[in-house]
Amino acid sequence: MENQTNQKTFEEVIHYRRSVRKYKDQAIDAEKVKHCLGLAVLAPNSSNMQLWSFYHVVDSEKLKKLSVACLNQTAASTASQMVVFVTRQDLFWKRSKNMIELETQNVLNTSPESKQAKRVKRWEMYYSKVIPFLYARFFGILGIIRKVLVNIVGLFRPITYNVSENDVRVVVHKTCALAAQTFMLAMANEGYDTCPMEGFDGRRVKRLLNLPWGSEVNMVVSCGIRDEGGVWGDRMRVPFEEVYKRL
User: Fold this and answer.
1) Which residues 6+ apart lie within 8 Å of 214 measured at CB?
2) Which of 75, 86, 132, 228 is most exposed, with the fewest beta carbons within 10 Å of its own?
């Protein structure tokens, strides 16, 4: 319940969070949801590029249309609010410039003066050359070039081989999913419930939210307070010993 907010331990939050398929007809505090999204931006992400956007939907008409785009599943149709997590790979140039500024300042603040120039140059090389080359897309062609290059370099030293345009797209989506998971745990700490949905019409969602061409919908997360029957039975996981490998 909401009066238990911030009283849960982390383990209690983990156990409390469930994918809720039906919510009560009860409002939730939009500012608390916004606060949880503020915590979501602290999620780990590849090269700190933060290629994501969060669309917090509270307008009743937009919620109805978004529910239709989510196939009118009860997790959407009964939700008080929804959040659409969107990948923004198209922002890689802007984010790269942000990171050059950040890392340059970090070097100036923490490094001996004798090493500052070399370290600043290293960060500039990474974010102005490597990252743009890795994140740029051109109908798959750049990805093929990258694959050829890393396979040659890989003959001489360890290297990451997942550099095709689809590989990088997967990385961006994984990063966004980490933010979504952080958000859902933060919501559980507030006593609110969520359900991550992948069953949606991505084209309709993009039109509804007027998303830019280079964006992609990662997932839609419905929000509310669980109703009776909103959690479909006891939680089931395969035996831990089946998935845990200690080497």
Assistant:
1) 88, 89, 90, 91
2) 228
